[in-house]
Design goal:
294 residues, alpha/beta, 6-stranded mixed sheet, 4-stranded antiparallel sheet, 14 strands, 35% helix, binds adenosine-5'-triphosphate, ATP binding
Length: 294
């Protein structure tokens, strides 16, 4: 388990990571989300020891993380940095060897990842000759080779086509199924909602919220949609109803209390047919927008 305990990073007198605490538990896929400049990359760099902490502590399985622990972590940095002149296979085998695999195991593991990420035909090509999306796939393989104990991935899904997103998601899920904790940052909130067990929402260096997607959705404002056979303007007169929109027989509403729903529905039925009356639970993207707009 990876634990961040009041982690701080300052650049001069600017505090860009401000007492951040969260955990990435065994076998959990944890999404790290936040607007541009929220401090995600800086936090990941501190986890990997690329940047020093200005305060706080990072622990791996209960004790302060060491350089030896970090050699067992798979990392996909923001500044992608592989060797442009090396071949795809050569590069991955080299990284596998650095992570302690035998030549044979490194070759097997590299070939497996190359196939899984649909790079089979590119295996002997130099990295610089690949498209950006394919270079990104090699970066993913580079983070995954050598059976890492933890994965720290900075925007691993950016620039991938939908097939590559699916392959990547499947590979990550296999890691969590084996108990590996996975932390990844992303701006693709629908994807994060679909894939993640836990989320950490970051804004301006601080953690605004963390928890399961469900627990975060419950923090958002629940709305109701009413669809009738006729106009819905009358809803504006119902006590406890806040009308977000009302047009063409469809109204989007926020209700002050649960009993308002009963009264509203009774009134709608009295006026004519009701085609739909449904509770709309917000998505993680809605909650994120609400939280970060404040
Ligand atoms: N080496 C540095 N020196 C000074 N300021 C820095 C340095 N690295 C990062 N920062 C600042 O720290 C803040 C957080 O940056 P960071 O890259 O961690 O954000 P992020 O959440 O990853 O953003 P994005 O989603 O845009 O990648 C930014 O304001 C950035 O300008």
């Amino acid at each position: 388990m990876l634990e961040l305990d009041n982690v701080v990073r300052r650049f001069g007198d600017r505090c860009v990571v401000d007492h951040v605490s969260f955990r990435v538990d065994e076998g959990r896929m944890t999404g790290f989300v936040g607007g541009n400049g929220a401090g995600k990359t800086t936090t990941m760099r501190m986890i990997m020891g690329v940047l020093a902490l200005s305060g706080g502590e990072i622990r791996w399985n209960g004790t302060p993380v060491t350089a030896a622990d970090r050699r067992g972590f798979g990392y996909m940095p923001e500044e992608r940095g592989l060797y442009p002149k090396q071949t795809v296979l050569g590069q991955l085998v080299y990284l596998g060897r650095l992570r302690g695999l035998t030549a044979r195991a490194a070759e097997r593991s590299a070939s497996d990842l190359i196939d899984r990420l649909s790079l089979t035909e590119k295996r002997t090509e130099r990295l610089e000759s690949l498209s950006l999306g394919n270079q990104q796939r090699v970066q993913i393989a580079a983070a995954l080779i050598g059976e890492p104990h933890l994965l720290v991935l900075d925007e691993p899904f950016s620039g991938l086509d939908p097939h590559a997103v699916d392959s990547m998601a499947e590979l990550l899920r296999e890691h969590t199924d084996r108990g590996v904790p996975v932390l990844f940052s992303s701006h693709q909130l629908e994807l994060v909602e679909r894939l993640c067990d836990d989320l950490v929402i970051q804004a301006a260096g601080r953690t605004l919220a963390r928890g399961t997607a469900d627990s975060l959705r419950r923090r958002g404002r629940v709305r109701h949609r009413l669809v009738t056979g006729g106009p819905t303007d009358w809803v504006r007169g119902v006590k406890g109803v806040d009308v977000i929109t009302s047009e063409n027989g469809t109204a989007l509403l926020e209700l002050a209390t649960d009993d308002v729903a009963d009264r509203l529905l009774a009134e709608a039925l009295r006026r004519g047919p009701v085609r739909e009356f449904a509770e709309i639970v917000p998505s993680v993207a809605d909650v994120f927008r609400e939280m970060t707009a404040a």
